[in-house]
Amino acid sequence: MNEFALARAVHVVAIVLWIGGVAMVTTVLLPATVRQVAESERVTFFERIEARFAAQSRWTTLAAGASGFWLVWQWNLWQRFLDAHYWWMHAMVAIWALFTLLLFVLEPLVLHRWFEVRARRDAVGTFALIRRLHWVLLVASLATVLGATAGVHGGLFAP
Ligand code: HEM
After folding, report:
1. What is the pTM of this model?
2. Using a 6 Å cutoff on CB, does residue 91 contact ligand 1?
3. How far apart are the C-alpha atoms of 80 and 89, rounded to whole Å?
4. Residue 157 falls within a domain, yes or no?
5. Are 25 and 53 in contact (CB under 8 A)?
6. What pLDDT is attached to residue 56?
7. Which residues, in sequence order, are CB contacts of 125 under 8 Å at separation 6+?
8. Residue at 82 is within a domain
């Protein structure tokens, strides 16, 4: 295996763990929390469990970003960012930047506390908001995976 194949493999494994985890949280953990946990305790319960996944996601996000940027640099793919046909390259960087901001800045510094405080006022509404946000992130991430895989292997709206 050459170093490019290795970087691509690292990239894909990181994406599988990271976006697969987002899918698991969105489609299994959040609905199970609604069924199993009392309304007033849902946000705290969920935040405690998701904290472990968030720690894991920080590593997978770093691995995906490092391997991705390394490939862009090695293959000199920068000009793709000037071509709308490569919208999936923009989507990859946008999703990565969004999660990086969420995991490293907003969640630890702002969101964790904000959700707890908001849940004391409106437990049901806050949990519904958390579920909606997860669905938005999951759908955007899956659209990116779809676009990138198709784009790399021949194209979905590609040139
Ligand atoms: C800093 C962020 C990222 C950069 C710089 C980046 C860069 C790259 C590069 C250079 C490739 C190979 C392109 C080619 O072979 O022509 C690639 C492939 C791919 N990336 Fe990313 N990526 C990033 C984040 C993401 C994210 C967040 C996702 C998913 C949500 C993603 C999913 C994929 C997929 C599915 C492939 C195709 C793998 C294959 O079929 O060989 N990437 N990425």
Report:
1. 0.93
2. no
3. 7
4. no
5. yes
6. 94
7. 118
8. yes
Per residue in 85-124, is it b (16+ CB within 10 Å) or e — as a string? ebbbbebbbebbeebbebbeeebeeeeeeebeebbeeebe
Question: Quick check: CB of 12 below 6 Å from ligand 1?
Answer: yes
| Residues 74 and 158 sit within 8 Å (Cβ to Cβ) | no
Domain that holds residue 21: 3-152
Ligand 1 center to residue 95 CA distance, Å? 11
- Is the distance from the beta carbon of residue 72 to the nearest atom of ligand 1 less than 6 Å? yes
* Sign of the four-CA dihedral 95, 101, 103, 104: positive
* 77 in contact with ligand 1, CB cutoff 6 A: yes
Domain count of the fold of the chain = 1
Q: For 131-155, write each residue's pLDDT tens digit.
A: 999 999 999 999 999 999 999 988 6
Distance 125 CA to ligand 1 centre (A): 35
Measuring from atom 19 of ligand 1, which residue has the nearest CA? 148
DSSP letter for each residue of 43-65: HHHHHHHHHHHHHHHHHHHHHHH
64 lines ligand 1 (CB under 6 A): yes
Confidence of residue 158 (pLDDT cuts 50, 70, 90): very low
Ligand 1 centroid from CA 72, angstroms: 9
